[in-house]
């Protein structure tokens, strides 16, 4: 149970949810980040607005040259989706590494992005796949590039009164390769280090990390160094991994070890894109 | 923060918060009057006295509270009961068929897949879900897909043995 | 003609309570309900040391549903003397008294109990109860206080946990003069918590007229009963403690924990039934396996004969009790050494008292010992197993007395054979599988086989069935099943003719369930009670039909098909119903206390032994260690039930893997509190971490240890695993890691 009292509503539309949303309320989707936070009193909103069943937030679809994942799509929806397997296979690969099957059945992409846990898996993949976070408020909708979305420790560009409705991805060109590689914390199964990497057919790359620092980040130094993807170039890129970052430090991984892991996982990811 | 909390909650009339939740539990339509902050786990254990579903951490870290909800295994401790209005829930009490144990239940007994028995309901519900998902192709994948369910007695190998016996009998010695 | 009942012992029976556990029907302590049940939630201190200045209960009491808040200021007056708070497992010192006064002795100390009509109300109110504290200076890091190290106090608990023997020979001289020496002073083990899957809970049913029925999570119903009666000044007969199913304990239930106190206090004061269930975080606010620092020095002649052994352990304890465990005594029981120096010291700091946790002491002390032997073998260029065989103890050198039985050599040989030990190439870093290094390691295990006094009762019921009773619990060890097998054999009847009832303080006395002594202790009492019942039945038969049974003795009669008959002449029989009629009673009972003969037992060292063999794979790039297979060969006397016995050993092996590679409670010494009191940050192995585990039980006959010849299995499965894993990691990587658990980054 949760150790304080709050109100709960389950509106049928995003608009109805926005009408209810105020400074004392929180959006509930899968609840797998929010409910533990409520139980620990890290957060204590007076009202929960459950959007998990709003139909318009659920699907995964093509829209022109974009792939659109609804904010309330669960990790297992993404894992199962044929569209994802076809166009963003890294997302299926990554979804299979999140928590355990019970968590995957309830946790959502939108919830994970809004919560912005520094060790969560999705942020790295969304950054690497050039995702755009679409948010809606009473005044309309706006699109936030993933490059601008993650602003710090558990913080995002999401403003009060806004709900994430979907995440849009450019459909990768034929021949694009992508992977998500993760060193898992053995008990919580969060990422001690996660590296998402994408290689365009022209050889340019997007490489993003989670777990390494207080917020997920794109590593442009690595991206710029992959060059012709020769072994030397990749080693040079790996050597630049997370340069100048302030590393997360906890009992399971010191700064040195985490930096080491980031390099190892950067190498694993880049090498997975070679063939 | 604590004092503001306190004042707001004392001013809230609790009656306003009570919701009617209707769900099917183990095939039986069930209605409960509950405030929104009651987890599905506590609704089962305290309000319906279905104590077969266990609380091992209350934070989604141990799997002891696993139940089947609309055909999927979920953690009842991280689920608000009110959010499962109109859902169909199967708990360990509903796994056997009219007194005839489910093959997994029989295999758990035969393989000694538990000692204290406290994680067992969650392990079995999770294994039912894992089998329905049908993803695991071999023992290692079964182990991986069952790893959200902790066992402190160390019956891990026997649990996987029991599941393998039912799930992929031909590959199991 | 039907033969005498088949022997039930030795059969691989499935657990008799299995169907209840797999259907969710088995009820645990916090799952019993009453119509007027109240819920208590405990509030814990948020400072490690100091005084409570003020508890703001007034505003909280106004919240809906709140019945009462108990604190040190309004608790009922309780027993005065320390001994009244002592239980069967209390260490020497002053037992912790919940809500005793304003003093805070450790972080997380229970300081208030909020009681409400609903669980939700209690927990909410507990979460907003404001408390002012006066903080005092504290220290929780015993390694910073080594100057305070001192010998432990002696007391009741140290009777079962002997302190180290006196030095022998001249260690320093022998060590210095020996050609090969191994020495290390950096063996460190972190704090561990039991973390049974079921959190501690007590439901106290207020029965009126001063009577209480208490469903408690405990390893000793009588121990909890004794504690409650003493502390609350109740008559023993008014306190009934029931522990029907116990969701694991591993030592956490050896002593009454504070949820019992809280639940009973509230029930007595409010005259209502009260349930108190702890949270997972609160499971870190009472006993733990203490952190330890150990030194070891071993020296040998060139031929491998060990000449000198020094083993010293320094362990954490609380400020109020001297918790001890047997850490350093094992070396000279396992290996004959003429010059020994064994020391054990404690350092008190501001924490709760440590508490026995599965294989207390043994799982701590065997790690340095068996790793030092491995190092010695490498120094000597000898196979580590050959070194153990070279120093094989035919008798217990530390006490200069024989073993009651010891088939350790068979464990070594059969284990090595099945594991393929001699297939390894001895050179470290010489074995690989793909990009992973592979290592083999082995170690020896030992655990003392104790027998304590216990009583049991056997009854022929009016239905003509047998019922055997003991207050003992079944914490998942298989006690119900095994005792039923023992009782069936002792009575000479089939399994379905006998029912074992347990887990209730109203039943005949059994000590707390721990230390691997339950089969030995309770099993011996069950045998004695069953034999007493057979005698009584024969006596009644003689009364009923004197001439026919006149010359018969207890061992010459059978209890089959509802009749007592002569084994030799089955047609000379009298029905159970007739025996009941003649006795003039509704049932025929016999009870017996088994008290082991201390004089006989003193002549022998009684211990179970094991040899563990482990294969690890190490990913050098990541430092990740995987135990790919492990085998434990065990010599533990008669195995009553090979199925549940195997599970005990395998479970112990998982604990050994966990201790070596996973679990540790981490303290923030600046705040004096544990940092990872949850299952996401306190690592225990998951299914994907556990691979091929194998068990061999070698044959071992023991007529001395107890009438069953059985030595107990709860701890012997763990003790050898951590050193075997550390030795395998060395073989794989060439690195000696002396700290447990071994962290990923230590190998980089």
UniProtKB/TrEMBL annotation, chain A:
Signal sequence interval, chain numbering: none
UniProt key word Oxidoreductase: yes
Ranges where the FAD-binding PCMH-type domain occurs: 1-174
GO function terms (MF aspect): FAD binding; oxidoreductase activity
Protein keywords: FAD, Flavoprotein, Oxidoreductase
Pfam family, one: FAD_binding_5
Domain of life per record: Bacteria
PANTHER family, per the entry: XANTHINE DEHYDROGENASE SUBUNIT C-RELATED
Record-given protein name: Xanthine dehydrogenase family protein subunit M
TrEMBL record, chain B:
Chain ranges of the 2Fe-2S ferredoxin-type domain: 19-95
Superkingdom of origin: Bacteria
A GO term, aspect molecular function: metal ion binding
Cross-referenced InterPro entries: 2Fe-2S-bd, 2Fe-2S-bd_dom_sf, 2Fe-2S_ferredoxin-like_sf, 2Fe-2S_ferredoxin-type, 2Fe2S_fd_BS, Aldehyde_Oxdr_Iron-Sulfur, Beta-grasp_dom_sf
One Pfam assignment: Fer2
Keywords, comma-separated and alphabetical: 2Fe-2S, Iron, Iron-sulfur, Metal-binding, Oxidoreductase
PANTHER family: OXIDOREDUCTASE WITH IRON-SULFUR SUBUNIT (PTHR45331:SF2), OXIDOREDUCTASE, IRON-SULPHUR BINDING SUBUNIT-RELATED-RELATED (PTHR45331)
Protein name: 2Fe-2S iron-sulfur cluster binding domain-containing protein
UniProtKB/TrEMBL annotation, chain C:
Source organism, top-level taxon: Bacteria
GO molecular function list: iron ion binding; oxidoreductase activity
One Pfam family cited in the UniProt record for this chain: MoCoBD_2
Cited InterPro entries: Ald_Oxase/Xan_DH_a/b, Ald_Oxase/Xan_DH_a/b_sf, Ald_Oxase/xanthine_DH-like, AldOxase/xan_DH_MoCoBD1, AldOxase/xan_DH_MoCoBD2, AldOxase/xan_DH_Mopterin-bd_sf
Gene3D superfamilies given in the database record: Aldehyde oxidase/xanthine dehydrogenase, a/b hammerhead, Aldehyde oxidase/xanthine dehydrogenase, molybdopterin binding domain
Domain Aldehyde oxidase/xanthine dehydrogenase a/b hammerhead residue range list: 23-137
Name of the protein: Xanthine dehydrogenase family protein molybdopterin-binding subunit
């Amino acid at each position: 149970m949760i150790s304080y009292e709050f109100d709960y509503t389950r509106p049928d539309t995003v608009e109805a949810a926005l009408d209810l949303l105020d400074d004392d309320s929180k959006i509930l989707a899968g609840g797998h980040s929010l409910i533990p936070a409520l139980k620990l009193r890290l957060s204590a909103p007076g009202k929960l607005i459950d959007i998990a069943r709003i139909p318009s937030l659920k699907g995964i679809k093509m829209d022109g040259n974009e792939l659109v994942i609804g904010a309330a799509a669960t990790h297992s929806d993404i894992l199962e989706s044929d569209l994802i397997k076809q166009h963003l296979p890294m997302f299926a690969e990554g979804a299979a590494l999140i928590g355990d099957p019970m968590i995957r059945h309830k946790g959502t992409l939108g919830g994970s992005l809004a919560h912005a846990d520094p060790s969560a898996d999705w942020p790295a993949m969304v950054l690497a796949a050039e995702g755009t976070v679409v948010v809606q408020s009473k005044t309309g909708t706006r699109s936030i590039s993933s490059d601008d979305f993650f602003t710090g420790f558990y913080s995002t560009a999401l403003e009060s009164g806004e709900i994430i409705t979907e995440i849009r991805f450019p459909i990768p060109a034929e021949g694009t390769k992508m992977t998500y590689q993760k060193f898992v914390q053995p008990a919580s199964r969060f990422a001690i280090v996660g590296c998402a990497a994408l290689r365009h057919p022209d050889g340019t790359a997007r490489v993003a990390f989670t777990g390494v620092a207080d917020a997920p980040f794109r590593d442009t130094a690595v991206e710029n160094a992959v060059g012709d993807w020769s072994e030397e170039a990749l080693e040079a890129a790996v050597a630049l991994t997370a340069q100048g970052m302030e590393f997360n430090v906890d009992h399971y991984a010191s700064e040195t070890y985490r930096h080491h892991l980031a390099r190892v996982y950067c190498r694993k990811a880049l090498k997975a894109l070679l063939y | 923060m604590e004092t503001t909390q306190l004042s707001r909650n004392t001013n809230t009339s609790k009656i306003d918060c009570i919701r009617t939740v209707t769900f099917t539990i183990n095939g039986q339509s069930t209605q409960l009057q509950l405030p929104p902050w009651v987890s599905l786990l506590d609704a089962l254990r305290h309000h319906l006295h279905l104590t077969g579903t266990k609380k091992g951490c209350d934070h989604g870290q141990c799997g002891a509270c696993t139940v089947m909800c609309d055909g999927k295994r979920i953690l009842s401790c991280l689920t608000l009961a009110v959010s499962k209005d109109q859902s169909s829930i199967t708990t360990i009490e509903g796994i056997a068929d009219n007194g005839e144990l489910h093959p997994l239940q029989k295999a758990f007994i035969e393989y000694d897949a538990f000692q204290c028995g406290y994680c067992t309901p969650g392990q079995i519900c999770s294994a039912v879900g894992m089998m329905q998902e049908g993803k695991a192709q071999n023992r290692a994948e079964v182990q991986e897909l069952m790893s959200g369910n902790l066992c402190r007695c160390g019956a891990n190998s026997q649990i996987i043995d029991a599941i393998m016996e039912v799930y992929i009998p031909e590959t199991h010695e | 003609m039907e033969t005498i009942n088949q022997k039930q012992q030795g059969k691989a029976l499935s657990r008799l309570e299995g169907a209840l556990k797999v259907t969710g029907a088995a009820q645990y302590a916090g799952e019993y309900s009453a119509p007027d049940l109240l819920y208590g939630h405990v509030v814990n201190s948020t400072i490690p040391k100091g005084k409570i200045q003020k508890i703001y209960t007034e505003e909280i009491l106004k919240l809906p549903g709140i019945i009462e808040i108990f604190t040190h200021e309004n608790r009922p007056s309780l027993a005065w003397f320390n001994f009244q708070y002592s239980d069967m497992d209390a260490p020497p010192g002053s037992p912790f008294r919940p809500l005793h006064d304003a003093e805070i002795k450790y972080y997380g100390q229970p300081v208030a109990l909020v009681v409400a009509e609903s669980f939700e109300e209690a927990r909410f109110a507990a979460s907003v109860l404001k408390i002012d504290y006066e903080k005092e200076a504290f220290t929780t890091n015993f390694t910073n206080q080594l100057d305070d190290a001192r010998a432990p106090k002696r007391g009741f608990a140290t009777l079962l946990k002997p302190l180290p023997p006196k030095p022998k020979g001249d260690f320093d001289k022998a060590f210095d003069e020996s050609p090969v020496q191994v020495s290390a002073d950096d063996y460190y083990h972190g704090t561990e918590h039991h973390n049974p899957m079921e959190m501690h809970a007590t439901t106290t049913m207020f029965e009126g007229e001063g009577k209480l029925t208490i469903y408690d999570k405990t390893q000793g119903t009588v121990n909890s009963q004794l504690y409650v009666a003493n502390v609350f000044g109740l008559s023993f007969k008014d306190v009934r403690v029931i522990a029907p199913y116990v969701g694991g304990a591993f030592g956490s239930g050896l002593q009454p924990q504070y949820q019992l106190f809280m639940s009973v206090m509230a029930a007595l004061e409010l005259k209502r039934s009260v349930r108190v269930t702890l949270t997972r975080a609160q499971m870190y606010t009472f006993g733990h396996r203490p952190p330890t620092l150990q030194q070891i020095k071993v020296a040998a002649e060139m031929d491998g004969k060990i000449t000198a052994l020094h083993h010293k352990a320094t362990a954490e304890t609380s400020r109020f009790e001297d918790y001890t465990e047997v850490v350093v005594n094992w070396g000279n029981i396992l290996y004959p050494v003429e010059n020994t120096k064994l020391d054990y010291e404690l350092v008190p700091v501001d924490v709760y008292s440590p508490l026995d946790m599965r294989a207390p002491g043994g799982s701590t002390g065997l790690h340095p010992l068996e790793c030092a032997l491995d190092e010695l073998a490498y120094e000597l260029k000898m196979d580590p197993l050959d070194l153990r065989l070279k120093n094989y103890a035919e008798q217990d050198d530390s006490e200069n007395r024989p073993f009651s039985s010891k088939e350790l050599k068979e464990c070594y040989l059969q284990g090595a054979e099945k594991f393929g030990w001699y297939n390894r190439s001895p050179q470290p870093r010489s074995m690989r599988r793909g990009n992973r290094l592979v290592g083999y390691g082995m170690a020896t295990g030992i655990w003392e086989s104790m027998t304590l006094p216990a009583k049991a009762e056997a009854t022929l019921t009016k239905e003509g069935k047998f019922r055997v009773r003991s207050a003992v619990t079944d914490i998942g060890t298989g006690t119900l099943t095994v005792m039923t097998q023992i009782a069936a054999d002792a009575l000479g009847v089939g399994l379905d003719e006998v029912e074992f009832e347990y887990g209730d303080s109203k039943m005949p006395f059994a000590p707390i369930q721990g230390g691997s002594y339950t089969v030995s202790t309770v099993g011996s009492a069950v045998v004695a009670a069953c034999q007493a019942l057979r005698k009584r039945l024969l006596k009644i038969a003689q009364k009923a039909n004197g001439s026919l049974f006149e010359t018969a003795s207890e061992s010459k009669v059978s209890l089959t098909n509802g009749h007592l008959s002569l084994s030799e002449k089955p047609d000379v029989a009298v029905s159970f119903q007739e025996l009941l009629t003649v006795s003039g009673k509704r049932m025929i009972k016999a009870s017996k206390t088994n008290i082991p003969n201390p004089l006989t037992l003193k002549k022998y060292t009684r211990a179970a032994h094991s040899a563990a063999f482990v294969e690890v794979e190490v990913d050098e790039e990541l430092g990740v260690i995987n135990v790919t297979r492990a085998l434990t060969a065990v010599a533990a006397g008669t195995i009553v039930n090979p199925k549940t016995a195997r599970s005990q050993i395998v479970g112990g092996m998982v604990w050994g893997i966990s201790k070596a590679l996973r679990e540790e409670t981490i303290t923030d010494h600046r705040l004096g509190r544990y940092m990872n009191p949850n299952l996401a940050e306190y690592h225990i192995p998951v299914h994907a971490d556990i691979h091929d585990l194998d068990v061999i039980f070698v044959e071992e006959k023991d007529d001395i240890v107890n009438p069953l010849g059985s030595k107990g299995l709860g701890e012997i499965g763990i003790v050898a695993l951590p050193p075997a894993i550390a030795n395998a990691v060395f073989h794989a990587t060439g690195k000696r890691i002396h700290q447990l658990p071994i962290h990923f980054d230590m190998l980089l």
